[in-house]
Amino acid sequence: MAPDGCTLDDIGLGEQIDRYRQLGAIAVNIQDGDARLVVTFGADVDVDLLDKTVAVERGCCSFFTLDYETSTRRLSIGIDDTARADALTALLSALRDSTPAPAR
Q: Which of 12, 16, 21, 59 is the most buried (most CB within 10 A)?
């Protein structure tokens, strides 16, 4: 179930969660703070997967701030409103769960 303010339907949400799982599986470091996640990738990061994930997130969840620094391969995801902490926690859970999504 998508958080309030997210425009993805259940299928789109499942696909986005799966993308985060795939990214989490190749991340070299995941840091979580009060209102921000920072994910660092190695040189082998799947750039197409990362670009797609960021593009979808920007389109569906305007309450996230997203920034990807190419030179350091670092993705930052933040929230300005602490009431959105549950959405950030959901992303963290997906990043840390590299279990493949069930077939649809």
A: 16
